[in-house]
Design a protein that fits this description.
Blueprint lengths: L1 H24 L6 E12 L4 E6 L5 E6 L5 E4 L5 E6 L4 E6 L2 E5 L4 E5 L3 E8 L3 E7 L2 E6 L4 E6 H5 L6 E4 L8 E4 L2 E7 L13 E7 L5 E7 L6 E4 L2 E5 L3 E6 L7 E6 L12 E3 L6 E4 L4 E5 L7 E5 L4 E6 L6 E6 L3 E6 L4 E7 L17 E4 L2 E6 L4 E5 L6 E6 L4 E13 L1
Antiparallel strand pairs: 1-2, 1-34, 2-3, 4-5, 5-6, 6-9, 7-8, 10-11, 11-12, 12-13, 14-15, 15-16, 16-17, 18-19, 19-20, 20-21, 22-23, 23-24, 24-25, 26-27, 27-28, 28-29, 30-31, 31-32, 32-33
Length: about 400
C-alpha cells in the first residue's frame, strides 16, 4: 500500500502543478516571468560565507563571520543561518529573494543579499531547524533553544523566545503550532566533564513551557525533518513521528524498524515537500524511504559504498540524489524505491579519517545538482538526467557547506 499511496500523492501533486501552470499562462500581461537562483557556500576552515549567482557564477557577497559554519535555509528561503559551533554564535544572511503567493501565480522580489546585524550567541550552537515561519536554534552547551521569528529577524529585531530543554545535551527543538517538540536528556547518567548526557526521548511543551502528554522514548535521538504536517526523528528503536493533535498537543508515534532489517539505525532525515514521506540514512551504506501512513512504512535501499551526502529534488518529485565516497552520484526513484542511474561526479572522498574532514556536499538549484568539491576549489554543476557535468563555479578556498535560495515567479 505504501508505494501506491506515494504514487497517488505524486500524481495529485503533478496535477496541481499542471493547474498552476495553466493558470499562470493566463496571468495578467504585466506579469513578466523572472528567475533568481543563489548559492550560499561556507568554507571548510575559514570563517567566511559567500553568496554566488548561479547563472553567472559571480560572487554577490562575501561575509566574514566568527568561525567555520554549517548552513541551513529557512522554510521560506529568505534567510540562511550560519551556525558556528566552535565560535558560540549564529549569523543570519538575508538571501535577497522573496516570494509572495497570489493564487493564480506567485511574485518574486529580488534584492541584494546581506549579512544581518542580528546575531544569536550561546554555548555550542549545533542545529538550526526551520518549521513554518520560525527557526529553532539549539545551543548544546546550554540545553536551550532560541525560537526566531523570521519576519521580525528580517526587520532587524533581535528578540527570540527561549525554550528550556532541561540540561545541556546534544539536542533539538522543533516548533509545531503552539507547541514545541523538545529532546529529553538522561540526567541520571554520569558523564565526563567534556561529555554531554545521551538523549533518551522526546516531549511536547505548551506555550507556557509545561509538558503535555508523556515523554516518548527515543534512544540517541538524532536527525529530524518535516514533511507536510508531520515531523520525524531518528532513534535507535525506529523513527518517531509527531503529528498535530489539537489542543491536547502533538501525538507521538514510534515506527519500529522491521525485525528483518540489518542492525543499524537512522540519524539523518529529509522530508518530502510536495509529498508526505521521509528519506533517511540507515547506517552508512543504506538509505530508507519512510511512509508513515503506509502498511509497510519502511523500504530499504542498499548503496555500493558509504554515503557522503544526500538531497531531495524539490522540483522533480521522484528524484533523490545520493553521493557516495567513490565519487558516484546515484539517482533514487522515491516512488519505486530503486536506484535508476549513477555517474561519477568527483574524485573519491573517503569517509575514513576525521568526521569534519572536507568532503563534498549537495544542493539542487534550477534543475541542476550543485556539488561542492573542496579539494579543487569548485562548485560542480551536474545535469540530473545525464549525470554529466555541465559547468563549474570556481570558489576560493575549500567550498564545503552549501544551500540554495531561489525559484521563478512573476515580476511586475
Amino acid at each position: 500500500m505504501g508505494m501506491n499511496v506515494i504514487r497517488n500523492r505524486l500524481m495529485m501533486a503533478a496535477a496541481a502543478g499542471l493547474v498552476f501552470a495553466a493558470q499562470g499562462a493566463f496571468a495578467d500581461e504585466d506579469h513578466e516571468s523572472k528567475e533568481a537562483w543563489r548559492l550560499f557556500v561556507a568554507d571548510h576552515t575559514q570563517p567566511v560565507v559567500r553568496a554566488i549567482d548561479l547563472e553567472s557564477g559571480k560572487e554577490l557577497g562575501r561575509y566574514d563571520i566568527k568561525g567555520y559554519a554549517a548552513l541551513t535555509a529557512s522554510a521560506s528561503g529568505r534567510t540562511v543561518f550560519a551556525v558556528q559551533t566552535e565560535a558560540d554564535i549564529v549569523h543570519a544572511i538575508a538571501t535577497g529573494i522573496a516570494f509572495s503567493d497570489h493564487g493564480d501565480h506567485r511574485d518574486v522580489e529580488v534584492k541584494d543579499p546581506a549579512l544581518s546585524p542580528v546575531t544569536f550567541e550561546g554555548k555550542r550552537p549545533v542545529h538550526a531547524v526551520p518549521h513554518g515561519e520560525h527557526v529553532a536554534l539549539f545551543f548544546d552547551g546550554e540545553g536551550k533553544a532560541a525560537i526566531v521569528d523570521e519576519d521580525a529577524l528580517l526587520e532587524g529585531e533581535a528578540e527570540s523566545r527561549v525554550v528550556d530543554a532541561t540540561a545541556p545535551h546534544h539536542g533539538v527543538v522543533v516548533t509545531m503550532g503552539k507547541f514545541d517538540l523538545v529532546s529529553v536528556p538522561d540526567t541520571d547518567v554520569e558523564v565526563k566533564p567534556d561529555q554531554l548526557p545521551p538523549r533518551i526521548g522526546l516531549k511536547a511543551l505548551d506555550e507556557d513551557g509545561r509538558q503535555v502528554g508523556d515523554t516518548a522514548p527515543c534512544t540517541d535521538l538524532h536527525g529530524e525533518a518535516t514533511s507536510a504536517r508531520l515531523v520525524a526523528f531518528g532513534c535507535k528503536e525506529g523513527v518517531l513521528i509527531a503529528r498535530p493533535g489539537g489542543m491536547g498537543g502533538p501525538r507521538l508515534e514510534m515506527l519500529p524498524y522491521p525485525a528483518d532489517f540489518p542492525k543499524a539505525h537512522t540519524g539523518t532525515l529529509l522530508g518530502g515537500k510536495a509529498m508526505q514521506f521521509f528519506l533517511g540514512n540507515y547506517g552508512e551504506d543504506r538509505v530508507v524511504l519512510i511512509d508513515p501512513d503506509g502498511d509497510t512504512p519502511y523500504r530499504l535501499v542498499d548503496l555500493p559504498t558509504r554515503r557522503l551526502d544526500f538531497v531531495l529534488d524539490p522540483a522533480d518529485l521522484r528524484n533523490a540524489y545520493i553521493l557516495t565516497e567513490d565519487g558516484d552520484l546515484h539517482v533514487l526513484d522515491v516512488i519505486d524505491g530503486a536506484i535508476v542511474r549513477k555517474g561519477t561526479v568527483t574524485e573519491p572522498y573517503s569517509k575514513d579519517g576525521h568526521w569534519r574532514d572536507p568532503r563534498p556536499r549537495l544542493a539542487v538549484a534550477d534543475g541542476k545538482i550543485a556539488i561542492t568539491d573542496p579539494r579543487h576549489s569548485l562548485v560542480r554543476l551536474v545535469d540530473p538526467a545525464t549525470l554529466k557535468e555541465i559547468g563549474t563555479i570556481p570558489v576560493e578556498g575549500q567550498p564545503f557547506a552549501i544551500v540554495v535560495a531561489g525559484g521563478s515567479g512573476a515580476s511586475h
